Structure formats: structure tokens, C-alpha cells
């Protein structure tokens, strides 16, 4: 087994550290935030991710995982170093903010031993790995091996995606360098996970290309949802039909209020910004349209609320779900948050419920009223909005909610609630891109 350091304990770093410890590696995770390190060290996650808490506690208990806020401690006690710092969006340009990457590389360089291996996992614009490799060659010990190993984590499935990924991509300057990381992932590779060894630029582009393609599918089906509303067609049946085509596939063809979170929106904007820098603006202009369609879904749902309620001022609107996706407490760029804030600006009385995201919601958006009970959120509602497809909401018995609300009307912003179940309980259900009733 290998001694590993993980630089950065955000969502990516914490998941990677705990999962690598579960494979038997000795892992020390570093972060500058002493409060966060103390929380991790006591076995507490600062965010929600199914299955990760158990791995964290098991790693600490076994002694395979520990946390530190001393970079020299992490580097000196490890052979391979994973860079897992954030690359947030620059609000003005949409480009990726590489300040944490630059800081990590520059701080690590003088501490690395000759022949050390550094593995980049952060999502970065193409060209970043080459810069880091050049910096290490000029400012670190000799023979530092840099490998770029992009992550493909889905929130809600991060443990599975780390331990049993669809593929492992390794960007290298020399193909022989990949053996170090292949050894670390040997248990995963042995069960048949494909390994793609390539150059730095291709490895960097794989991640953003995958996210851009997924974003394209979502915006594509949402554009057709608008068309279906105009002509009276059913976008869900349409998606089912084209999804049977093996060249297309059914996944990511679910129409609704669009995507959010910390990856897809950020990555397509960063890719567009980098393409512009490289003189490829026209070729990647389609990404702007994808982004426009996606953010437009939020306005479209607000319009549907106005159609249903008329003047929304002083109307009670209940929102089911504010996390950007189920099985996560992440509200970054959440469509539901955007919709809630717009309705509040128009004078509506909003009350939201979410199984996991309310604690972080209260810290970031204290102006949004919330309730930890579905029943309380729906009390006296003139309209209910279903905006995050938690399993809990799929399983709701609408007959139990009928006496709580003023009006039995729900807009299903995710197009997944069963029409017959809600209709039989006396509810009007409104879909996006599907005939409503």
C-alpha cells in the first residue's frame, strides 16, 4: 500500500481521502482551514454525501486516515500527492479561478522529495497541467512526476464513482509514469475499469468535454419541452422514444427546470472562456446557448407560477426541494433557490422543505423561510412546487396533504410525479413539456 497526501478537503478531497483509506492506503489530508480539519478529525462531515461518513469514521478509527493543517506534515509523510483544491468560477468572465491550484503547486514544490509523484484531480482549463509540470521542473527536486487524473464524481454517488469509476484517465508526460497511479487504483482496475493513458491536454479536456456533452443533452431536451408545450406534445414520451436509439441513449434526457450545482454550469462557462482565449470562440458559441436555455428554465417556471396564480403577491407558495439534485445538500447554482428568490422579489410568501439542505440554506439564504417538516411547509399553500426529485417526494401520499393546502395544485418541475396518484387525490398537476391535468 502507498502513503498518500490529499491537498484540499473540499467535496472532492474529502471523498478521495476517505475512499483511498478504505482501499488500505495510508492517507493524510491537508487543508488550511483549521476548523474544517478539526471537524474531519472528529469524524464529522461538513456536507452530506451518502456512505461517505461511514468511510471517514472507519478510516480514522483504523489509523489509515488523518487530517492536518500543516502542509509539510502531509508532504513529508507521503509518497504520492493528490491535488484536490477548488477551481471556482470567476463571476465576471466565467473562467476558472486557478488561484488555489497555483498556490498549492507553489507551496508544494520546495517540500517535494526527488522522484515524488504529484497527481492533479481538480477540474482545470486545458494547459494547466503543462504549467504545473514546468513549475515543478524549475522549482522542485529532480524527477518529479506529474500526472493529471480528472475526477468524474456525481454528487450523491461520489463513493461509488471513486471506488468503481466508469473509467480512469491519466494524463502524463511519459507513459511509464502512469504505473504509480495504476498501482494505487489496482483493486479498481482488476475488476475491469478501463484505463486511458494520454497526454495532459487530452486528460484535461476529457472532464470538461463530458460535462459539456451532458449539459447539451439536458438543454436539448428542455428546448423540446418548450416546443412540446406549444404544440401539446409529451416531452417524456419523446425522450423515451429517442432514448431507445443506441446512438442517443435515455440518460440525461429528463426535461424540467434544468441543471445546477458546482460542476456543469461552472465547467461549460470555463470551457467557453478558455476556448475564447485560444481563438475558438465561434466553435464553442453553442455553449452560451446551452447555458442560456438552462438558466431560462428558471424564468419559465416562474412564468408558470404567474399563469396559475395571477398576481403572486402575498400568495403562499410551498417548495419541495432546494438542493440542486437529490442525495446532496449542495445548493450551489440551484435552480430551486433561483426560483424561490425571484418569487420572493415578486412578493410571494415562500416556505421550502428539503431533507438535507436546510441547514446550509439558512446560513447562505436566511431570507428564505424553511421548515423541516413537509406538512408545515405546505400549510395554507396556494401552490406547491416540486423542484428537487428526492425519493421522499416521489413516495408522498397526496391524500394526506390535501387538507393542508388552500389549493390542490402542484407544478412538477422535474416531471416525475405520478399523474394518476395525484389526480385521484383531487390534485391538479402541471408538468413542463407534458400535458397537464
Describe this structure as you would to a colleague:
43% of the residues lie in helices and 13% in strands. It has 18 helices and 14 strands. The strands form three sheets. The chain has a six-stranded parallel beta sheet, with helices on both faces. The chain has a six-stranded parallel beta sheet with strand order 11-10-9-12-13-14. A two-stranded parallel ribbon has the order 7-8. Helix 10 (200-231) runs parallel beside helix 13 (286-309). The termini are far apart.
How much of the polypeptide forms β-strand, as a percent range? 5-15%
Shape: globular
User: In total, how many beta strands?
Assistant: 14
- Write out the CATH superfamily name of the largest domain: NAD(P)-binding Rossmann-like Domain
How many distinct helices?
18
Average pLDDT works out at 96
How many structural domains? Answer: 3
User: Which structural class is indicated by helix and strand composition?
Assistant: alpha/beta
Major sheet, described briefly?
Answer: 6 strands, parallel
Topology-level CATH name of the largest domain? Rossmann fold
Kindly, what is the distance between the CA atoms of the first and last residues, rounded to a whole number of angstroms?
A: 59 Å
Question: CATH class of the largest domain, anyone?
Answer: Alpha Beta
Radius of gyration: 23 Å
- How much helix, percentage-wise, in residues? 40-55%
